[in-house]
Amino acid sequence: MPETIPPNTAQILGIFASLPKTYGSPSASTWHQKQWTSAIHKQPVHQPIQLSQENLQGDAQADLKNHGGPHRALLLYSSTHYPFWRKQLDRPTLPFGAFGENITVSNFTEKSICIGDTFTLGSTIIQVSQPRPPCWKLARLHRIKHLPTLVQETGYAGWYCRVLQTGTISPSDTLTLTDRPCPDWSIDKVARLKYLPDKGLPEYTQLALNQYLPPHIRDRFKAKAANPNFTHDSAPRLVGPNEN
């Protein structure tokens, strides 16, 4: 890795993929031992790997309603958050990939990455599509019930990308920014507006019209802009079956 990384580039520090697996037992009484199916237990990839418009080779999702698809083909996460989590969770050896990401990157964070940012990565071209909404499966993975809420509150959640050009990526690749059409809309800002209870903000209308966001995210902002009484219950996503 070079000693100084230009501000528009980041080094890939890890690539991760996995297929869905079922864990736990249907007869378990404790929340973290109940049966569940997920591909969040990502395994490191040490060789070049194909990236399609849907996902990495050898990677898939169990819940196709809330994960996967062309707008969520790739989940990226910043390495700069790991020191915080290692201390916060008292897990000093917490490895990259522990937040279910496909790629751990240096340098970039949710505050420096914007919606629509376009990057070259290996022989591929990827584009930032939306913030990652943390879900209850993170709690199951780490056996910490409040972890998804903490991830959302800190903003250390990661971001999804779509694939504009398929190809091959490698663990030694560099992520290089080539276009930034929405410099005012960082991932952190969009995520906080998405979860914000405030009503009638002009930003809602602006984001409802932002074509770089996936349709379901634009619809959410459209509803928030049109209805001053709009509410959204995040508990099914953050807590899910972990409530009991």
Explained architecture:
By secondary structure, the protein is of the alpha+beta class. The chain has one domain: M1 Pyruvate Kinase, Domain 3. It has helices at 82-88, 137-142, 147-154, 187-195, 202-208, 215-226, 235-238; strands spanning 9-17, 21-23, 36-38, 43-45, 49-51, 74-78, 103-105, 118-121, 124-131, 159-165, 167-169, 174-179. The strands form 3 sheets. The protein has a 7-stranded mixed beta barrel. Strands 2-3 form a two-stranded antiparallel ribbon. Helix 1 (82-88) links the parallel strand 6 and strand 7 (103-105). The chain is globular, with a radius of gyration of 18 Å. The N and C termini lie far apart (46 Å). The model has no long low-confidence stretch (mean pLDDT 94).
Task: Set down the secondary structure blueprint.
Blueprint: E1 9-17, E2 21-23, E3 36-38, E4 43-45, E5 49-51, E6 74-78, H1 82-88, E7 103-105, E8 118-121, E9 124-131, H2 137-142, H3 147-154, E10 159-165, E11 167-169, E12 174-179, H4 187-195, H5 202-208, H6 215-226, H7 235-238
Structural category is alpha+beta
Radius of gyration: 18 Å
| Contiguous runs where pLDDT drops below 50 for at least 5 residues | none
Percent helix range: 10-25%
Shape, principal axes of CA atoms: globular
- Quick one: biggest sheet? 7 strands, mixed, barrel
Number of domains: 1
Following the backbone from N to C, one meets helices and strands in this order, namely: EEEEEEHEEEHHEEEHHHH
| CATH architecture label | Beta Barrel
In which order are the strands of the major sheet placed?
Answer: 1-7-6-10-9-8-12
**What is the average of the pLDDT values?**
94
CATH class: Mainly Beta
Report, as a whole number of angstroms, the end-to-end distance.
Answer: 46 Å
CATH topology: M1 Pyruvate Kinase, Domain 3
Beta-strand residue fraction: 15-25%
